[in-house]
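In line with agreed milestones, the collection of sequences with tokenised folds has grown. A representative record is reproduced below.
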Amino acid sequence: MEAFPVWNDKYSIKNDNIDLQHKTLFNLADKTAKLLNRHIYKAEIKELLSEFFEYMKTHFKDEEDFMCSIEYPYLLEHKSMHKKIIKDMSILINDCSSTNDLKEKLYEIVSVWLLEHIVEHDMMIYKWQQRVKNEEVKEEVKEEEKFLYICSCSETIHKLDYGTHVKIKYLHIAFKCKKCLKELIFYNPED
């Protein structure tokens, strides 16, 4: 399994408490990577999962309070992602039967949900703060973030806001094109 990224100041959201918690989560991810690359007992994995689980619950609450204090426009979507991460962790802790299964699912949660969440979604909080600090109008900021989606319509690209993007890509809520009635699919022109 590949190594996880390490903490870098480019991931800072410029809030000392949240940044310190993110650094701790990166350290837990590094600890996870080291454990997953060797023979490990099921009890060790469950202990690490429990440590992650408890820390993430505290972190998510603090982060949600912070987002509320700065009137972050995607607070509900972000909270939904947090709930999904906690739900996935709960299922993992309770349902895995084999050590290999635990290792695989732990890797997925740490890499996909945790680090991707910090690197991509928590950075949106920082961007919001910077724009508000620069006295940009909040409604304009919300309109600015667009994500590209395609459907079966020929040469049609749907430009969706961040909130809808999160619902489709991370919360697996289907949205359909009003014209062709097919599900929208995330489109990354760089792929």
The chain has a mean pLDDT of 82. The radius of gyration is 18 Å.
